[in-house]
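Record type: monomer structure entry
Structure origin: computed from sequence
Chain ID: A
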Amino acid sequence: MKRPDSSLLIDKSETVISIDGLYKSFDDLKVLNGIDLKLHKCENLTVLGKSGSGKSVLLKIIVGLLKPDSGEIIVLGQKLNRLGTADLNALRLRIGFSFQSSALYDSMNVFQNLAFPLTMNFKNITKKEVQTSVEEVLGAVALSDKIFQMPSELSGGQRKRIGIARALITKPEIMLYDEPTSGLDPITCVEIIDLINEVQRRYNTSSIIITHDLTCAKNTGNRIAMLDDGIFLKVGTFNDVFASEDVRIKGFFNYNFIQ
């Protein structure tokens, strides 16, 4: 596995997600404590942190599933706090969300799982268009032969791939990955990492990858944002971040690669 040079894809003149002064608490628990972050067009940005550091909460705020206590979030030029339900739903169609659990419907086969977002959101879509879209994304994740299998018949890595395919099927401009390598064996982790990079190249997506896996972070992220106790300790390339003398960053590195 070698991280491809995707820096030429990135357009730093265009920001697709802008977060300024974001705070979020649940009762007395402070989860996000005034964070700032920008995602550039066609960039893979990895948010790295231990469990409970606020990574998944950040994703849910970006797609409007949670409301922040304060701060401004602009996604694809739209301020989230000014969007009504219809406009928010329209914005979500431009964002692909790959859930940690893959979130496939157990009662549907792979074709039905992938077709569902299309038939639910595009009322005038034809059966032929659905078939073509399903075949395209299955080809992109290299699982064309699984089209009529049930989720229970798939391996953990295959379910992750189908979850990514379903996120891609509406042709989103932004991809959000929640712990994409969690619970997978090392070989399958490499396959998912390679797929995330292929999605960036093939679809020119801008992506935020939430993970506590340093191997995933190093090999997918053009930049790394190290999140700890609700703040970003450092944002930069993998080498920039882990050259830091901050004991919290060093401790995270040691936990991943020494213990």
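Annotation 1: The chain is about 35% helix and 25% strand.
Annotation 2: Residues 1-94+172-259 form a domain with the Rossmann fold fold (CATH 3.40.50.300).
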